[in-house]
Design a protein that fits this description.
By secondary structure, the protein is an alpha/beta fold. It has eight helices and ten strands. The longest helix has 17 residues. It starts with 6 loop residues before the first strand and ends with a helix.
Length: 231
């Protein structure tokens, strides 16, 4: 575990940095001895280069992120995993001690030589399992085509398989998110999980303001609490 001396930490997103919308809750919880920097796996690439190199093939697992121009982009999950590994290798060469991945997608191939690699998919899934037990969760994803992979990710011992719906965290308003939440609640969900680092506390507030009264777990906030305790 990192000591109380200065810790060099990288907040690594799958798009381009900085992404303060992803890191606000996390940075609020970081102790004073942590020096954080923002890094994107696609930093320095134009939108055309990103779309040429990382566009998903038909039916391939995909992820959504935002580029420096403010627009969103859909990415091939496997290709982004390879790019993340190259970025992680570079960060370790530069002396980074803790790398926080800002994506709840699964990247089982990622490795570090000595740095701590914090992956939200493991933190969020296990936290939700511990909190909810057999109570059924409603999981909201950014893209409907991510459901197959999400079902495998959320197949956890001792838990009831969750329900799924989709609503992009990058929509200009919360209507689709509220509709997804109400649909899951009507189907019997006892709590909601916003399964993407693009969701933020203001999405939870939007659900509350719309009268959705289920417990809501925001991935970034769950990760922030764990990091604050860890560091």
């Amino acid at each position: 575990m990192p000591t109380a001396s200065t810790v060099r930490l990288a907040l690594l997103n799958i798009g381009q940095a900085p992404r303060h919308d992803l890191t606000e809750a996390i940075e609020h919880e970081l102790p004073a001895h942590v020096q954080a920097r923002h890094v994107g796996a696609l930093d320095g690439l134009s939108r055309a280069e990103v779309q040429s190199r990382f566009a998903p093939a038909e039916g391939a697992p995909c992820l959504i992120s935002r580029l420096a121009d403010g627009g969103t982009v859909t990415l091939d999950a496997a290709l982004i995993g390879e790019q993340l590994q190259r970025t992680i290798d570079r960060l370790e060469d530069e002396g980074v001690e803790v790398i926080v991945l800002l994506c709840t997608g699964e990247f089982p191939q990622l490795r570090t030589r000595g740095a701590w690699l914090v992956e939200p998919d493991a933190v969020v899934c296990r936290t939700v399992a511990g909190l909810l037990g057999s109570h059924r969760a409603g999981v909201i994803l950014p893209l409907a085509q991510q459901e197959e992979e999400a079902r495998a990710k959320w197949r956890l011992p001792g838990t009831t398989p969750p329900l799924f719906a989709a609503a992009s965290p990058y929509s200009p308003d919360a209507r689709s998110l509220v509709e997804a939440a109400r649909s899951l609640q009507a189907q019997g969900a006892r709590a909601l999980v916003l399964d993407c680092m693009g969701y933020a506390p203001h999405h939870k507030k939007a659900l509350r303001d719309a009268g959705v009264n289920l417990p809501v777990l925001v991935s970034g906030s769950v990760l922030a609490g764990a990091l604050g305790a860890f560091l």
